[in-house]
Amino acid sequence: MIESLPISIHVCDDLKRQFRLLTSASNKFEAQYNFQTMTANWYGNEDNIFFVQLHLETPQSFIAQKKVQQQAQQQELNTFSDDVFSFYKKDDKEQLFICHIAITDTELALLNQQSQLLVTLLQIKLEKVLNLIAKQLNLPTI
What we know:
Layout: E1 7-11, H1 13-18, H2 22-39, E2 50-57, H3 59-72, E3 78-81, E4 84-90, E5 95-102, H4 105-113, H5 118-136
Parallel strand pairs: 1-2, 2-5
Antiparallel strand pairs: 3-4, 4-5
């Protein structure tokens, strides 16, 4: 059995096709953020570890995901901004914090002109979202 890391980053297929470096960058950030959150003591209680899924979306897939979650009405959506929403799932086995992050049309246009900005933009967005999560859960920021 493979153990899951507490933080995982998922990239929608459209973004993967558009930016070939996105998968390797997201893998790098996944490892980095798991280490940073561990050293920030996010997982002090090993019996009560929560998982964070960060989903990078196009504007269209972001809107579609938001509609699906609103229609499901199984959990309350937390809208951090016009390009980030999250929800929380808890069952007997785990606590799961799911966050959808849109790469906006403006950001996509910029990245199409200057693809070298991809890693920096991704780092800024992901860190901002993780720190919003930390604040919501009363954890140290990274």
